[in-house]
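Lab notebook: predicted structure, single chain.

Context: the supervisor wants predicted structures on file for every construct in the current expression panel, including those that have not yet been purified. This is the next one on the list. No modifications to the sequence; it matches the entry in the shared construct table.
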Amino acid sequence: MAALISRVGKKLRRIIQRPGSVELTRYEALLPAVEKLEPELEKLSDEELTERAGKLRETLKDTAFGDDQLIEVCALGREAAKRALGERAFDVQVLGTMGLLTKHVVQMETGEGKTLAGALAAAGYAIRGKRVHVVTVNDYLARRDAEWMGPVYALLGVSVGWVEPSHSREERREAYAKDVTYGAVAEIGFDVLRDRLVTKVDDLVQPDPEVAIVDEADSVLVDEARVPLVMAGSIDRSDADEEVAKIVRRLRLNLHYETDSEGRNAWLTDAGSSVVAKSLGIEVDDLFNEQASDRLAAVNVALHAHALLTRDVDYLVRDGKVQLINAARGRVAELQRWPDGLQAAVEAKEQVTATDRGEILDSITVQALLARYPEVAGMTGTAVAVAEQLREFYELEVAVIPPNTPNIREDLEDRIFASPSQKLRAIEEEIRTVHETGRPILVGTQDVAESEELAEKLAKVDLECVVLNARNDAEEAAIIAEAGKKGAVTVSTQMAGRGTDIRLGGTDGADRDEVVELGGLHVIGTARYPSSRLDGQLRGRSGRQGDPGSAIFFASLNDELVLSNAPDVPEGIVDDEETGEIKDAAALRQINHAQRVAEGVDLEIHRNTWRYTRLIERQRRDLLVHRDKVLRTAYAAEVLEKAHPEKFGELKEKLDDQDKLEQMCREVLLFHIDQLWSDHLAYLTDVRESIHLRALARETPLDEFHRAAIPEFHKIIGEADTRAAKTLEEAELTDEGIDLGDAGVRRANTTWTYLVHDNPFDSDFEQTIKKVRSMIKRK
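Prediction complete. Output recorded below exactly as produced.
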């Protein structure tokens, strides 16, 4: 009867496609067989264990995992971990490994051993003959996990490496040649982009993608899915208009300019336009003439930098440089920058030295990067909340792995206040009261500015705390590791992807028993995050592996989350006259509603962005097939010989070396292909920026985008051949063949990447329409 009920339940879940509904019964049934192999494997020497894994590799090569193979892989992995790390994988970790080996996103709570489960799965795929990339959220975790799990891989006969920013091309090629390669998602993406621009096969560093196991899968696959990794080539110093920056600095909100409720756009009022025009020495009408379009664009970008980007929230100024902050992780986004003059505008605003500007050579979104892999799996502590997106964008299902020990953390009801200042006073009192008991406290803030403000207030009442934010993220592992010590108070920005457990009693566990007796780690959220997953990730830092603990969130009806997403607070909500605390259930409903709106907006932006980038990625894929043909064959020489046989004959005579001849022709044609693709990306950016005008004309923006993009793309290959032929025709030949520099075939040496909040519908026009609609609804 039980088996029948299980089968019916499984079919029902498939029909309704409920998130997080992967059936674990198949895997749970294999656990006894995995354990049964344990005594047999324990008798083997290390060499015999490695040999047995090698025999399984021969059996499994390029075949799918059956139950018998899953049992063998997991049993071997458990034994290898026990010998190499002194850790016997729990049954839940084995379940997680099986889920990963069958291409699911497994949800495992914080502290349940995702790193080991991921390593055993990576080894399993490698034993199956696949190259595996374990994709992490940062470079620190990539190196740490590769080195930490290295002995386990060695016992299973699997080689492992990692890539990091300091690695040379040769070191990268060596790392990617391993069976398993760890790397931050950005680092792997940059290598893909660099490989797309090589002119010699020997310069390629990455093999063809086969398997990706994504750590912190919700963060990488959802939060950063639409973030383009951009390869840009240096041209010269940015030409930000410092005069405009000084003018905009004097403008005042609601007098000279206004912003939308979502904080995405700012625009000049009539008074603001008058001030700007007068400061520039022109008439107001002239400011909006076509001849002044460049100056008006500079004003708009400077206004965006002034009004919408906040120091210590969106970016830091450190060592004389503007550094972006990754909002999802609360840390500096290394090597990232804003596009379209915005970086220069922020630098002018902060009066720091301008960085080089450049042209986009190529780009790829994180979503498209991972779509290259035929097999993808992932692991995270909070997957169910984004199961819909994982299914929609990646065709991945979520497998919820139960904790090894039941979670006994006490999740307290949110405390809600009328104003942020009243909320802050209550947070200070909560910290003081709990600290007096000796319990360790972790406080999660929204941004750098808030974390430092809170730390200053605590210092005034003699409450010492350690601050973890984007300013000191290099020290994060050591800070987090000690956050569980008796009496510790740690204030941190977003905890997602920190990669280090908080052990009660600290790293040495000296105070563990006492901290357990006191009630464990107490987590305080200073506001609800825009995503319930981020709330869950903060809560999940307490109560690891059955430890006691508690978590509470404080909120205000004037928090940014509410003001931006649900500002129409119901009337009749009353707060306490002295404390400002609100007990009315309607307040909590309003905050929950605001969070759902924020999540819905983010999902819709993801969908809209993907509708556009999908075509671009398809075009890039098609062009790369042609580019690879040029890279690996004599196609370029054949094109040039056909176009100008006499000049080609002269070139051939000068070089007197067929390989050199083909390579020179190849470099000429590849240069023009790459330049035309760069031009195409710039063209598509212009099309998207004007897409709201198509909507005004009652045309479907996406259809119009396709109508503009497709014909232009089909011109690239023919135009590249034509330009390459012209280069040969006009080039002066020397004894070395063609002087590529003199012929204009010059590639950028300096490259970088930057972060773009990429919403194709986010225009001044669209925001104005939203405002009008909301006004009509209120009436």
